[in-house]
From TrEMBL:
Gene3D superfamilies: TmoB-like
Identification of the protein by name: Toluene monooxygenase system protein B
Record-linked Pfam families: TmoB (PF06234)
Record-linked SUPFAM superfamilies: TmoB-like
Domain of life: Bacteria
Molecular function in Gene Ontology: monooxygenase activity
Matching InterPro entries: TmoB-like_sf, Toluene_mOase_B
Enzyme Commission (EC) number: 1.14.13.-
Keyword flag Flavoprotein: no
Root EC class: oxidoreductase
Keywords, sorted A to Z: Monooxygenase, Oxidoreductase
Amino acid sequence: MALFPISSKFDGDFVLKLVPVDTDDTMAAVAAAAAEHSVGVHVPDQPGKVIRARAEGAADPYPLDMKLSETGLGPTDTVEFYFE
């Protein structure tokens, strides 16, 4: 359990954001934390859809139940978020 900053690149948002999360957070929790800074601010909400996260440039998203500490991401690495 440790504070861990990620760079959030939310689809449709024009600003990258530094978001503090925890290494024990699931990727669903990380996506929710990133959404707080973009959805309803720069990106319209899409009720009923799930926010997914993937490494920058990756084709596949992380499993929602995967812990951040299991992703291999480093501090301030960019994570892409999008509605699915």
